[in-house]
Amino acid sequence: MIPSTFAYDRAESVAEAIEKLQSAGGDGKLLAGGHSLLPLMKLRLTSPAKLIDIGRIAELHGIAQVGDAIAIGALTTHAAVASSTLVKEKLPVLVQAASQIGDIQVRNRGTVGGNLAHADMASDLPAVALALDAEFAVATPDGNEVIGVEDFFIGPMVTALPEYSMVTNVKFKLPPAGAMQVYEKVPHPASGYAVVGVAAVVAVAADQTVNYVRVGMTGAADVAYRAKAVEDALMGHAFTEAAIDEAAKFAAVDGSIAGDLYASEEYRRNLCVVHTARALKRLLNA
């Protein structure tokens, strides 16, 4: 497929990118890695009149610890995240997810900010962002603001980003010391997207009861969600196989589970239960 005709421009700074978005009058799109946007353009599911290339804005690259979070620049690639020593040490769940995104070409060009701002319902990173209480730094025409992950994802490919704005970095909160982390995924055999993806973070007290738990789900519903019913079922209870099996029954409760040509709603509900249990048991047996 061939996209419709479009103009190309390049921004050298965040401020310039915002200005160019405004001048496009709602008919411009930011181009980072392009692995989400360009396929949609080829299918003519979106036809922007102008692409604004932000790939050379240096301030949007990088990984660093900032207080109790790991801050990742919006243009940082999935490959850079997957190979980062800091992320491997502090947030292994993010490394596990980033290393499973698409194929090597996608990981080398696709970006963290672009992936999350695209808000694909089958993308891997939204589940991890939810499990790590992420915060999005956003540049807007009126200045900078921060949007929490619980408010960020609104619907399929719809976020709370204001008009003419862009994500500049994402802060992933560090879990409590000693917390265990895992990402479990059922990949679509052709695309690699998550049919169901589960990001789990669990900490247990000295008496082996759960005192911290986050479970993020992607792929199963029309938008990524926190499996709060699973969290509630585990919190304060002994972290055992029996408790996990009981809690995992609630994995599909908090999402509007969807079916498609590949997986029916019933099948996805079952996958949510099975793979939430598998993810948590991986932590139990680690």
Overview of the molecule:
With 286 residues, the chain is of the alpha+beta class. It folds into 3 domains: 7-53, Uridine Diphospho-n-acetylenolpyruvylglucosamine Reductase, domain 2, CATH 3.30.43; 58-173, Uridine Diphospho-n-acetylenolpyruvylglucosamine Reductase, domain 3 (2-Layer Sandwich), CATH 3.30.465.10; 180-284, Enolase-like, domain 1, CATH 3.30.390.50. It is 33% helix and 27% strand. It is built from 12 helices and 14 strands. The strands form 4 sheets. The protein has a 5-stranded antiparallel beta sheet with strand order 4-5-10-6-7. Helix 10 packs antiparallel against helix 11 (241-248) and helix 11 (241-248) packs antiparallel against helix 12 (265-284). The longest helix has 20 residues, at 265-284. The chain is globular and about 60 Å long.
Give a short overview.
This protein is an alpha+beta fold. The chain is 33% helix and 27% strand. The mean pLDDT is 95.
Write the layout of secondary structure elements.
Elements (H helix, E strand, L loop, with lengths): L6 E4 L3 H10 L4 E4 L5 H6 L7 E4 L9 E4 L2 E5 L4 H6 L1 H6 L1 H7 L5 H6 L2 H7 L6 H7 L3 E6 L2 E6 H4 E3 L2 E2 L6 E8 L6 E8 L6 E11 L5 E9 L6 E2 L1 H7 L6 H8 L16 H20 L2
Parallel strand pairs: 1-3, 2-3
Antiparallel strand pairs: 4-5, 5-10, 6-7, 6-10, 8-9, 11-12, 12-13, 13-14
Low-confidence segments, given as residue ranges, are none
Please tally the β strands and state the result.
14
Envelope shape: globular
User: How many domains make up the 3D coordinates?
Assistant: 3
**CATH class group of the largest domain:** Alpha Beta
